[in-house]
Structures
1.
Amino acid sequence: MESSTPDPKKRLLLHICCAPCSSAAIERLRSEYDLTGFFSNANIAPEPEYWRRLSEARRLAAELEIPFVVDTYDHADWLACIKGYEDEPEGGARCERCFAFSLSHAAAYAEANGFDLYTTTLSISPHKHTPTIFRVGHEQGPFLDVDLKKQAGFQRSLELSREYDLYRQDYCGCEFSLAQSRK
Ligand code: SF4
């Protein structure tokens, strides 16, 4: 009698922007993919905020038992990338460059480490334009189009944040979004 072995899951690198967004993303993707988290957020300022978000994302990944990789934090490099676009409103050209910065790092890591695909938790936010994320993602590498805000993904991230007692920031990440949130 022949026995059939199920196809192995594809290896998916999940760019993680923060713990709350990653919670529902991991829940949704882990049954179909062999997941690894990739925390790459050189956009975050001030620096203590970066370490706080990293700590929470790492804690959640450990609780959910997925591998977790941390990228270099180089905010000066990120500032050079968005130079000239500092005063753009949130959702504009600065954010597109910001997506490209993080996703280029994720795509490079995915390629260097044998992943089949990569994607990002960024699409779970109702404040972020999914078609722009997808376009920028494909420009960097083998991107998986998954719109995490669909199927009530953002709502689920709120529920899981309460369940895991996750820190939820009140601004997107960079100093420009922080200043805007305090107006
Ligand atoms: S508002 Fe958010 S997405 Fe836009 S540049 Fe700042 S950190 Fe990046």
2.
Amino acid sequence: MRPHVTINMAMSVDGKISTRLREDFSFGSKEDRRLMDVLRARADAVVVGSRTVASGGWAIRVRDRDIRRKRVASGHTLHPLNVVLTRALDLPSTKQFFTHSQTRRLVITTRAASDVRVRRFKKCAEVVVLPAKRIRASRALTLLAERGIRRVLVEGGGALNYAFFEEGLVDEIYVTITPRIIAGADAPTVVDGKGFLAANLFPLELVSSRRKDNEVFLRYRAVRR
Ligand SMILES: NC(=O)c1ccc[n+]([C@@H]2O[C@H](COP(=O)([O-])OP(=O)(O)OC[C@H]3O[C@@H](n4cnc5c(N)ncnc54)[C@H](OP(=O)(O)O)[C@@H]3O)[C@@H](O)[C@H]2O)c1
């Protein structure tokens, strides 16, 4: 059975998840960061795309001490496995994502990654080199299931999120609407990629909605077709 897949994203009112320069900046409030920690604490692995690591590159951790304590008490590791999907592995290995002492890492890449890069990243992560041109989300989930991962949190960006929607692999999505307009046709949105056509949209049902101060917290579940 494939792992359960949750996506969590914070967006502007106009649906953007960063600026056109893909700048790394604090997006949500303290409340949103708490939700992020709660969802991370429920996950065995958190998966991100290479541009998310390139723009921020922070280690993916459960930062709230109480939430972390409860996670560990229920038999989990301190933090979920940090997973990045990248075809060519053209990333700086100096990013905190690859160096934090408390996190474990899995890099899923392809033969487009040079031997030199693969060797370099093997010093700080498990590296799986797929004999394919692209990395299918379903293939990534199989690799994770083989490592005992049952709950996956996908934290973007928009290109990676689409890969999971495209294959119908998303079970639920949390979206926080934050009070700003980012704008820009080239700014990434919650789900980018090629996109669906009208006859084939991905249906969701609203599970909950909550307002706190200036933000709205939405949770949707996938409707199975
Ligand atoms: N607001 C939020 O909640 C939030 C959350 C996360 C990220 N962000 C922001 O989102 C931006 C990055 O988003 P993005 O859409 O540009 O990039 P992304 O989804 O983070 O990364 C896309 C890259 O991942 C690699 N990849 C490997 N396999 C893939 C697959 N099956 N499908 C898609 N990509 C695959 C590709 O690069 P290779 O060439 O390496 O294969 C691709 O270009 C950053 O600015 C980041 O700060 C915001």
